[in-house]
Amino acid sequence: VYIRKHPLEIPPPSEKDWLKDDEEDFFLQDPDRKRDALPQPFRMINKLVMLVFENAMEIIERREMLREAQKLKVQPTKCFPTAEFQVTGRANCLAVSGKYIFVGLSVGLSAFKVSDCKEVCAWDAVKTEICAIHALDLGNECHVLLAVDEMGLVWLFCFHKESFVLIKILNEVEDISRRSTCVEVVLSPGGDYAGVLLQGNTKAWLEIYRLPKDSWLKEMEKSPGAAAGLACRERRSSWTSVGDIFLLQESPVSANKADAKLSLPVLLLKVKPPKPITGSSFKSPLDALKKVDDDSMLGLGYNHLIKDSQWEQQEAIFCSTYRDYLEAEGERESKEEIPRHATFHFLLPSWILQVGPEMKVQPGVPAGISVHWDGSHNFCLYLLNRPLKEKVDSDPKPDVVWPCAAPIACSAVSSCSRYLALACEDATITIWDKHLGYPLSVTAILEERLIRSIYFL
Fold it and tell me: Residue 396 and residue 246: Cα distance in Å, rounded?
């Protein structure tokens, strides 16, 4: 029999066995679990391991939510090439016109059919590198092409019955020192006109050509032998059985190399950038009025009576008034330079570009062009049906001038040619209805923004 030697007392607490961190939750633990209370440093290790698992589960849940949200979005269609074909040299650019694909190569031009991707013709008489192509379908298996080479020369081709015909090099000159380079080429809808922006050593200008497409079609039909083109090679194609790779094999038989004598394009306009406005040389208002044709439109601001001394006095007053601001920004002398780049569009007849009764207007044929030069406030409109007595080399005056509150940064014309968008450097966008002749909306963007380009969707 066991007999207690000491009286019955409450045993003293043993603090060394207490749980220091989880004292409040100690009574919630299961008494059957003998290893609830871990000694140090295992409790710290347990906490770190559980923290790692919890963070991992949060990352997994977040990624699963993103994956589910991605599945709900419309997935873009993945397109894979259906055929592969090889070309001679390096392909730099391409243009699609009708049922043909025209490719600019490092050694010339090539034409392929859209239906079977077979090469039908190639032009490499000069071995020049083509950097840009613009093509347009004229109907009756005839296409007009404007190709720009590495030297900035503009080559005008007519593609008829699967053969190239070189018509003219638009900016070719005998004196190399006077050679100009092409900056931009635009074909009008329908192929009636072509615009070429050229740059020389110290100046830039815009040339507008009328393309005699009706004469080309008649001349092609009259001389089918000459329509075979310049240095045009036919190539036969073969499909390989592995991977459906389209290979081209050159045929030893060359096509007719006769030069087709086609009508040359006619130079209609040669638009030069506006000159900087300087002091007036007129002695009286009557002398200035004599230079004005009529009072039916606004001009470019050259016929004024402000002297050079007045300009200088105004600039001196401005500099003295805002001297602190000019010094803070770093005073820089601003020299007015002649702009070297322009944006132009072909426009159909409308209220803002009215054509006189003596001029014939065809539906779908552009009646004029709009031009604005970099840094200019004026949006100039020129009629294309100009009288023949006016010399081409003379600097033509615009038929309509729209002065804007700020320099025009960029512009765009809708595909239907009805709406015109003008964006100025003060971040203001104006949408015009050209048929009705009034603005539809004016939107001001934040002043800190600068609009670089604008497009109609």
Answer: 52
What is the C-alpha to C-alpha distance for residues 430 and 41, in angstroms, rounded to an integer?
A: 73
| Predicted confidence band of residue 167 (pLDDT cuts 50, 70, 90) | very high
Residues in the chain: 457
Read off φ and ψ for residue 360, nearest 5 degrees: -85, 135
Q: Number of C-alpha atoms within 13 angstroms, CB side, residue 177?
A: 0
Residue 337, token pair as written in the block: 């330079």
Which of 315, 312, 316, 318 is CA-nearest to residue 279? 312
214 sits in which H/E element: helix 213-222
Reference 100, options 78, 122, 129, 128; nearest CA is 122
Q: How far apart are CA 269 and CA 187, in angstroms?
A: 15
DSSP type of residue 9? -
DSSP-derived letter for residue 365 is S
Q: What is the pLDDT of residues 218-250, one digit of tens each?
A: 888 776 554 444 434 433 333 333 333 333 333
Average pLDDT for 102-130: 89
130 or 308, higher pLDDT: 130
**pLDDT over 80 (residue 9):** no
d(CA 145, CA 102): 9
**What distance in Å separates the CA atoms of residue 145 and residue 158, rounded to the nearest whole number?**
6
Q: Are 456 and 414 in contact (CB under 8 A)?
A: yes
pTM attached to this predicted model: 0.70
Buried b (16+ CB within 10 A) or exposed e, 375-389: bbbbbbbbbbbbeee
Tokens encoding 346: 């072909």
- Provide the 10 A C-beta neighbour count for residue 80: 4
- As given in the structure block, the two tokens for residue 279 are 């002091």
Task: Kindly provide the residue ranges of all beta strands, DSSP E only, lying in 332-417, ordered along the sequence.
Answer: 342-347, 368-373, 378-383, 400-403, 408-413
pLDDT band at residue 456 using 50, 70 and 90 as cut-offs: very high
Sequence-separated (6 or more) residues with CB below 8 Å from residue 346: 186, 188, 189, 193, 195, 366, 368, 369
Q: Which run of H or E residues covers position 113?
A: strand 109-113
Q: Is the CB of residue 271 less than 8 Å from the CB of residue 206?
A: yes
Which residues are 198's β-sheet partners?
182, 205
Taking the C-alpha atoms of residue 246 and residue 437, their distance in angstroms, rounded to an integer, is 53
Question: E strands along 161-302, which residues?
Answer: 164-169, 181-187, 193-199, 204-210, 233-239, 245-254, 266-271
